[in-house]
Amino acid sequence: MAVSRRQFITITGAATLGLASAPVFAKPTKKGRVVVIGGGFGGSTAARYIRKLDPEIDVTLVEIHPQYTTCPLGNAVMAGFVKLKSITHNYEILKDRYGVNVIHDAVVDVDPVSKTVRLQGGGELVYDRLVMSPGIGFRWGAIDGYDQAASELMPHAWKGGTQIQLLRKQLHAMPDGGVAVVTAPEIPYRCPPGPYERASLMAYYLKKYKPRCKVLVLDAKRDFPKAHLFKQGWDKLYPGMVEWVGSDSGGQVAEVRAKEGVLINRDGEITRADVASVIPPQQAAEIAHIADLVDQSGWCPVELRTFESTRHPAIHVIGDSAIARPMPKSGYSANSQAKVVALAVVAYLNGDEPGEPSLINTCFSFVAPDHAVSVSAVYRFGEKGLSVVRGGGGRTFMTGDFEAEARFARSWYKNIIADTFGQRS
Ligand SMILES: Cc1cc2nc3c(=O)[nH]c(=O)nc-3n(C[C@H](O)[C@H](O)[C@H](O)COP(=O)(O)OP(=O)(O)OC[C@H]3O[C@@H](n4cnc5c(N)ncnc54)[C@H](O)[C@@H]3O)c2cc1C
């Protein structure tokens, strides 16, 4: 079926409004059709790079929300030194400059046999290659009493947006002398150093406005990433204010009673919190489960040369949903994986073989607005999957220039946003 650009827009609009009876729009294209699910760090980068590498490939990006609020710098918004507006981005450049067809709708099903994607609004998209970067879902109930309703009282604030604003409001309303709790899950989860950045920036805010408050981190782990650097920062900047309790000392939270502001560990010990940010155990986003892309771990196994699913061909899974050990689940990892997938998809649709990739990640964490720490690594694909390239990365020295790291962190953010969503020239 040949569909004109005008008809295509009409069908898309109707589908989004839920008026169409499941139309299949297969826009004719010289090289092939790629559908991308999820317009975050992974999906937007993949869409942009595929179009950049080969403008003859038709790319449709399906994203629920018209705007994307990043998790990176979300803790800075919570602490009040970055505005929510400056971490909120849209898809205009992807559409206007790169010719990506952007549809704001939710994907409700994927059929890997007929290679179709079904939208909540009623439309269907046909693909030659599908790229999925839908992020995370929560394991509701893994902590007794922690469900979606409880998260409105004890915000996870782990997907950006309204939850970050809620946490910010709660900190503002907290009495001086109160206790703020952050819970951290076991690995794997999105942004391994994120809970400790959150605790740091809670302390930054509270020291300024409510200096008799305490911040308590209740951790399901025995240790945590960049621990010595965070602890050094806490001692220097917030002496006596931040306490970390690891799993060996009863840090693992087993139950919450959100209405009472109570957290209970595995030994039945009770902690009362004035504010609690409960970051629950996680898994791949729901659509990855619906599409039968997850294994028993709850995450998506992929072949690490091309990030093609090991469960269904022609579907590439990247970002937080994918199992990409030893890469951490981060925006930078998702961005790096997206470029590998863009190259692989372009190669396949041009009848070529993809090459062997190397990837990169850096995680910056703010301990204060002018004090940051980082860890970075380069990864190479080989016989055993991905491995860390020795000497390719590193972490901030204990005697490092933390102020310079904070400048690098802001500059990293600017650059990755431009690389993900495009930059108007
Ligand atoms: C507090 C915090 C701080 C962080 N700081 C950093 C940092 O400094 N550096 C860093 O690199 N990383 C950081 N991260 C991690 C980073 O946010 C994630 O790793 C990154 O967002 C993962 O990208 P993704 O593309 O996999 O998923 P996401 O960015 O979550 O994008 C997924 C998108 O898919 C959409 N979607 C989901 N399901 C569907 C569906 N069915 N249909 C249509 N659309 C769908 C969602 O709406 C979403 O927009 C941080 C995370 C947190 C929580």
From TrEMBL:
Molecular function GO terms recorded: flavin adenine dinucleotide binding; oxidoreductase activity
Key words of the record: FAD, Flavoprotein
Domain annotation FAD/NAD(P)-binding: ranges: 33-145
Keyword Zinc-finger: no
Residues covered by the Sulfide dehydrogenase [flavocytochrome c] flavoprotein chain central domain: 165-280
Domain annotation Flavocytochrome c sulphide dehydrogenase flavin-binding: ranges: 356-421
Keyword Flavoprotein: yes
Short name of any one Pfam family annotated for the protein: FCSD-flav_bind
InterPro entries attached to this UniProt entry: FAD/NAD-bd_sf, FAD/NAD-binding_dom, FAD/NAD-linked_Rdtase_dimer_sf, FCSD_central, FlavoCytC_S_DH_flav-bd, FlavoCytC_S_DH_flav-bd_sf, SQRD, TAT_signal
Signal peptide: none
Protein name as it appears in the record: Flavocytochrome c:sulfide dehydrogenase
Species this chain originates from: hydrothermal vent metagenome
